[in-house]
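# nightly structure sweep
# worker-07 picked up a monomer target from the shared queue
# config: single-sequence mode, recycle default, output format = structure tokens
# input follows
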Amino acid sequence: MEFSFRSDIGKRRTTNQDYAEAFTNQNGYHLALLADGMGGHRAGDVASQKVVTELGKKWQSSQITESEKAVQWLIQRIQEENTAIYEAGQQQEKLQGMGTTVEAVAILENQIAVGHVGDSRIYLLRDGQLMQLTEDHSLVNELVKSGELTKEMAAVHPQKNIVTRSVGMPGNVDVDVAVYDIHAYDRLLICSDGLTNMVSEEEIGHLINSSSSLEDACQRLIDKANAYGGLDNITVFLISFGGVGHD
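# output follows
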């Protein structure tokens, strides 16, 4: 397995509120994390860094090897971080209202366990085809599902950045979880909406497929999002499984 991740402030923002990192637990299994913070000038980056760092520390001390246990771990730990971020916002005025998306991928033996809250995304690239594994928790996606908007209308909707679910909400947050088998030569893309709001899925797939390495693909994706305006922070995390996995 190989992985590479890169983050860029974009062309319009004054701070980068995205945060991504990878961690390894006591049995050698990896957890890839990406968060896109929201809130005031400082609050968004506080929330995103906090959720990634705290989840990472807890993963490092875990001994999880099975997908079912990983799913339960993701639900419990993300809900714990939801409470912690909400309470931190209540205690400090400058952090009030802060929140973050979170994408978590536990990489196990020939499987991945996925945890998702918000409108960042996880994609699977298999046999050259890009498939979205997560569903956006956003206002426009709800309108698309209800038939009030088409996907094309949603892409340019003025309220497309309104998130309906995030880490940092009062009460419990619902965490979308799933387990997927990994096939030989699969690749995963974890990304913030700074990429997907600027670059089409067709072009994202083409850029990854035509890149010479994961590092090259990360940079080309960021460069393309910036070339189209770079309206938000852009973070991409790519994982390649090589010849390891189910045939």
